[in-house]
Design goal:
6 helices, homotetramer, two-stranded antiparallel sheet, 31% helix, alpha/beta, six-stranded parallel sheet, 162 residues
Chain lengths: 162, 162, 162, 162
């Protein structure tokens, strides 16, 4: 664990956002043809735009089957860098690509807890799985798909850039 | 800010409704082909019809990509005047088109707070982003897409037209 | 108002269910082609089957544009009698077709309150518009689209058929 | 009822999951062409994978009309054994296929209560019909389609395999 207290606040440089359950409600609409749709929420794009001058913000998803859906919203419409990273490769991917002492991660699942233990600061939406809520540095009041990422962005700005 | 106390109640002449997060849940269903659907709720059309003899009621949306979806519900089915106004142009649009001392605005996002500061009265749904809820003159008990606009209409009738 | 206390409980013979906001969440999914889908919930069909030997149960909807969607679920799949009755004709339709002293109505909207005043017993889902919740004889703990009708059926059986 | 206290914990060998209202929100999206989509949630697949080395886990559904939708998610994507079993055949199916003293069942409906009375341990999601919640051995804090099955899996591991 990074000793966050000893570091100047400006050292937080990356915000990595999980997609499903963070930028979406986490739910998948299935039809008889398979995975059909995901539910993205309001406000999050506003929050990300507000913070994007201050930090590098990018997204990751472990959902291979729904990756074309995710790309439409996250890459094309929100213009965020997006990587497909499976859950077992995730910690290695974090370590290879970022200095984790200057990285914030927002996730919602049971496996995200492993990442939470290695980053400078961790955030979970109000609707996250209970283990993620228990271990996160900060839990938003908004649920995922209802403004959780926007609230996280304002919280980060307030905490690390003031 | 208008000194609302000094003015006769009948002076409130316009109700401007944001669409996403006010007339909808704010959520977007995405498929692999992009933005696919929005979720509109019950009761709101009943409330608007009840108030429409007393005030000018119209809608605005900043969602260019989903504007064809919005038009189907708001223009064609609800028969409301609807304008596409981006968030940075919004305050200018309000000032150009309305006497803000006689205008009520119902919005749900972080940027709507700027408009709230200039209108006679502001309303946020129970599900609005927390900053909008903090700054609104009135917060409905119903969430957006679950009757928030209908409740706002009854509240306006009760407060300004009795 | 019928003096319900003076009547034997077996006199309750009809249960009329509003569709939107009672058998559905009340929400409409719109695409660029217009009204696309409605959301029906679990348990309700089980509750209706359990009560159908004891009462005449039928459904009404005021939603002309979505009536083909409603028919698929309510007429074809649930096998309930279904009528399209606009909101201004609704009270007349009730009076013409039923003895209201032996009729229960379950509704969720502001106009349903007018019907509530004329029937033997009225029920609103937990998610109903606040005016309907205030005036109903009974409010379910389940929301519409989450078992409200099933709970209403068990409540009716318990209250009127024991 | 099995005398669970007298048995070693390792005797719990099967976990049977109802699909609608347990692995889904229980809701059906209907279009004018009929039943169109179901809503599956996050986390559940993670929980099932974690527990699958310890128990036999399989799924049942009574929804004939939506069975092709269910198969896409549960059989093809989650790789769970899945059977279509109507509600009146369900208790017989359980008795024929499993030793119920070593079987856990997770269900959400009024008819699932009959099964609950015959299995070693029963679980209901927070969003289950109230009768199922009243009778279950354990009620999750997460709602169905929001992580209820994942929470159940962790609860089972903690209670029976430690």
């Amino acid at each position: 664990m990074v000793a966050q207290m000893d570091k100047p606040k400006r050292d937080v440089k990356n915000l990595i956002l999980d997609v499903d359950g963070v930028l979406t409600t986490g739910q998948f609409l299935y039809t008889k043809d398979g995975k059909f749709a995901k539910v993205f929420g309001p406000h999050d794009n506003d929050g990300i735009k507000m913070l994007s001058g201050l930090m590098n913000i990018q997204a990751i998803s472990a959902d291979r089957r729904g990756f074309d859906i995710t790309q439409k919203r996250v890459s094309e419409d929100m213009k965020l860098k997006l990587d497909l990273v499976s859950e077992d490769e995730r910690l290695e991917w974090f370590k290879k690509n970022f200095d984790l002492t200057e990285t914030i991660y927002m996730g919602d699942g049971m496996h995200d807890v492993d990442i939470f233990a290695h980053v400078a600061y961790s955030i979970a939406p109000a609707s996250a799985f209970y283990l993620a809520r228990e271990k996160a540095s900060f839990v938003t009041t908004h649920r995922a798909g209802e403004g959780a990422v926007a609230e996280a962005c304002l919280h980060i700005k307030d905490k690390f850039f003031k």
